[in-house]
């Protein structure tokens, strides 16, 4: 009597393919019943040797050990998910840069024009980066050479003014980048926009924590946070 290797595979699989606690208990009970029956009815002239009995006991112990290991790993996973949620909660009310090309401009009679920060992510260092800001109609309102920019994430601010020094109207604008290396070759860029973390919600099964960035930007994962401002 040997335990089918598929049983071990199912136990080790966990989740929906693994054995439940009730099924595992039934498996152990059936094993012991069969083993005792086998011992009682074995051929006296050809009894089960110690090696075979030890092998069968080892198999059922392996099933129990894997089940306990799965329980331990599930507990560790739950603790990690809780820690991730707690970490994400610390970002509430914090400003962050996430992938996107939006710039919001507001005008305050007392404090003047304010534009939200923006950023760029580069896989390679750039010899020169040019930034362009356009309005909703696609008209260019501001351009500037930023000069050399290192690889990684860099954030920038814009005063909400045109190239002529005049203030732009309140509303939404778009930012784009053109980056080149020392040989003049174009580099791939990722525009980043400003957002405020308003809440945290767990994903399916308690994992994949999502950050709520409001109605405009929706929800993003922690891996989408490129910089905390």
UniProtKB/TrEMBL annotation:
Residues 115-182 form the FlgD/Vpr Ig-like domain. Keywords: Bacterial flagellum biogenesis. GO terms for biological process: bacterial-type flagellum organization. Residues 85-226 form the FlgD Tudor-like domain. Signal peptide: none annotated. Pfam families: FlgD, FlgD_ig, FLgD_tudor. This is FlgD Ig-like domain-containing protein. It comes from marine sediment metagenome.
């Amino acid at each position: 009597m040997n335990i089918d290797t598929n049983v071990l595979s199912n136990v080790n699989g966990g989740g929906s393919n693994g054995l439940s606690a009730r099924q595992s208990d039934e498996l152990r009970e059936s094993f012991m019943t069969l083993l005792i029956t086998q011992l009682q009815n074995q051929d006296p002239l050809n009894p089960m040797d110690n090696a075979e009995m030890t092998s069968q006991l080892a198999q059922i112990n392996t099933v129990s050990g894997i089940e306990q290991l799965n329980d331990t790993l599930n507990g560790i996973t739950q603790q990690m998910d809780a820690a991730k949620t707690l970490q994400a909660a610390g970002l509430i009310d914090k400003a962050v840069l996430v992938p996107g090309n939006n710039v919001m401009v507001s005008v305050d009679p007392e404090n003047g024009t304010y534009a939200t920060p923006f950023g760029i992510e580069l896989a390679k260092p750039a010899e020169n980066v040019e930034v362009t800001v356009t309005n909703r109609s696609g008209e260019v309102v501001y351009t500037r050479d930023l000069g050399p920019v290192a690889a990684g994430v860099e954030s920038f601010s814009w005063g909400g003014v045109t190239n002529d020094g005049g203030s732009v109207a309140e509303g939404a604008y778009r930012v784009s980048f053109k980056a080149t290396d020392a040989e003049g070759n174009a580099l791939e860029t990722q525009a980043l926009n400003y957002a405020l973390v308003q809440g945290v919600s767990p994903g399916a099964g308690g994992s994949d924590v999502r950050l709520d960035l409001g109605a405009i930007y929706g929800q993003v994962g922690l891996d989408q946070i490129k910089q905390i401002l």
